[in-house]
Known about the structure:
Elements: H1 4-39, H2 44-75, H3 85-95
Helix pairs in contact: 1-2, 2-3
Amino acid sequence: MTSVNQVVTDQDKAVDQKKVLNRLRRAQGQLSAVITAVEAGGSCKDVVTQLAAVSSALDRAGFTIVSSAMRDCIADPDNAESLTVEELEKLFLALA
Length: 96
């Protein structure tokens, strides 16, 4: 039987996953635009601006993933899939 807390956690995970996928798809589209701009000889300003948008979208996806893992660890620290504080810190710093 699933507890109310688990249902909320599963819903939160689904929302986070949707956010991550949306950001990754946005980054994918932006990266395609960067490639097209470079192939077409686009201006440096346009290419760098679009590349910065790709980078930001990827960073936000990564931070969403790490924050979701932190919430999971706080909600259920005894879960075998939970990351240690050190592992979370390493992941967070990898994004910085």
